[in-house]
UniProtKB/TrEMBL annotation:
Official protein name in the record: Lipoprotein
Signal peptide span: 1-21
Keyword Signal: yes
Organism: Fulvimarina manganoxydans
Keywords: Signal
Length: 166
């Protein structure tokens, strides 16, 4: 149905509603009320939402405090690459690119980067962002987030930004 017909039909359908409860005075609606075709409507107030705070809080009590500059050793870089590779089928080729690292206030080596993965034979690839955490004392590296797109990628990127690694 063409747009003009839709608008005309909507206007015709709402005319009887506009007549119901129409206030003939030119007074503005009372505070807390709006007006739709002359009908008093309650005001809908949305709570204030801080999207940046929500995206950078982390999940499960994670500490996303800003990191200080710290370089990863070759062994730590290899452990990070291995943790990222573990998120994919064993026969996929995974490359870690653009790795940024920093030391958290608790002494953890935090890393963010981009990963590319391809199926055997080079068929359709995947690329996305990841975030890892390495306990330098034990050498244990955990993949905290990996995301290829959509909201998950935005959240992972926001977490990396909060860490100062974005």
């Amino acid at each position: 149905m063409p747009m003009r017909s839709t608008i005309i039909l909507a206007a015709i359908a709402t005319m009887p509603l506009a007549a119901c409860g129409h206030n003939s005075s030119d007074d503005p609606p009372r505070r807390g009320q709006g007006s739709l075709f002359g009908l008093a409507m309650p005001s809908l107030e949305m709570p204030e939402v801080n999207v940046t705070r929500i995206l950078t809080e982390g999940g499960g009590g994670e500490d996303l405090s800003r990191t200080t500059t710290a370089q990863a050793s070759e062994a730590e870089r290899a452990a990070i690459a291995l943790a990222v590779k573990g998120a994919f089928p064993q026969d996929w080729t995974v490359r870690v690119l653009g790795l940024k690292t920093g030391l958290s206030p608790s002494g953890q080596l935090m890393a963010c980067g981009i990963a590319n993965a391809t199926k055997p034979g080079g068929d359709s690839g995947w690329n996305g962002i990841f975030r890892t955490e390495t306990t330098r004392r034990t050498g244990e590296t955990r993949l905290r987030q990996i995301a290829g797109g959509g909201t998950d990628r935005l959240v992972a990127y926001s977490h990396c930004q909060a860490l100062g690694l974005g």
